[in-house]
Write a structure and sequence with these properties.
It is built from 10 helices and 6 strands; from the N terminus they run βαβαβαβαβαβααααα. The protein is of the alpha/beta class. It has 2 domains: about 1-125, Rossmann fold; about 130-200, Orthogonal Bundle (Arc Repressor Mutant, subunit A). The protein has a 6-stranded parallel sheet, with helices on both faces. α6 (about 125-140) runs antiparallel to α7 and α8 crosses α9.
Length: about 210
């Protein structure tokens, strides 16, 4: 069972999400919050697997929520669900530790897939966000450039695919996929998938 906390200051949106997610047998909403302070409190109390987090909140922002929760070494993983699709919001969110970034016009099926992917250690980005991410990675001027194969692996990683799924789609062994990921992390100077997304988005930006 994947345990969730839903954070959004709009009651209709928040209650709609809670109701929709309640239909999924493997998902359980264990808490909700309408502002930044309440969000931190509920997340630390419930220790959910995944937190759905809006960025614009009363009190303080979703970015500050992530910072405060991370400072307490909470294991929860964050899926940002927002209406903002500009670098002004995307880069800080991913740099602070969000594992996913979706817009509120995403379909229910896409949202549920993203939640499951993030709960399993993957990442999930809206198509437009993923495109900018890959453009920035391909065009980075600092550090070593990624090879075409590494970019292929990265595209699938961004979509939330597991190592096994990446291996199957590219006709590679899982050990080869792990090797490619290791090279990608080394070239981007990061330690995790989420950190790779954040660092890559920051590189090459004007």
């Amino acid at each position: 069972m994947i345990r969730l906390v839903v954070v959004d200051d709009h009651p209709v949106v928040r209650h709609g999400l809670v109701s929709m997610l309640g239909y999924e047998k493997d998902l359980q909403v264990v808490g909700e919050a309408a502002d930044g302070q309440a969000a931190v409190r509920v997340i630390l109390e419930q220790a959910p697997d995944v937190t759905l987090l809006d960025l614009r909140l009363p009190g303080f922002s979703g970015i500050e929520v992530m910072k405060q929760v991370r400072a307490q070494s909470s294991p929860t993983r964050f899926l940002v669900l927002t209406t903002y699709d500009t670098d002004e919001y995307i880069i800080p969110a991913l740099s602070t530790g969000a594992q996913g970034y979706l817009l509120k016009d995403t379909s229910p099926d896409e949202l549920v897939r993203a939640i499951r992917s993030i709960a399993q250690g993957g990442a999930a980005l809206q198509a437009g966000v993923a495109a900018r991410f890959l453009e920035n990675v391909a065009g980075q001027k600092n550090g070593e450039e990624l090879s075409e194969r590494e970019l292929e692996v990265l595209r699938l990683l961004v979509s939330g695919a597991s190592n096994k799924a990446i291996a199957a789609q590219l006709n590679l062994s899982e050990n080869t996929v792990k090797s490619h990921l290791s090279h990608i992390f080394d070239k981007l100077n990061v330690q995790s998938r989420a950190e790779a997304v954040g660092v890559a988005l920051k590189r090459g930006l004007t």
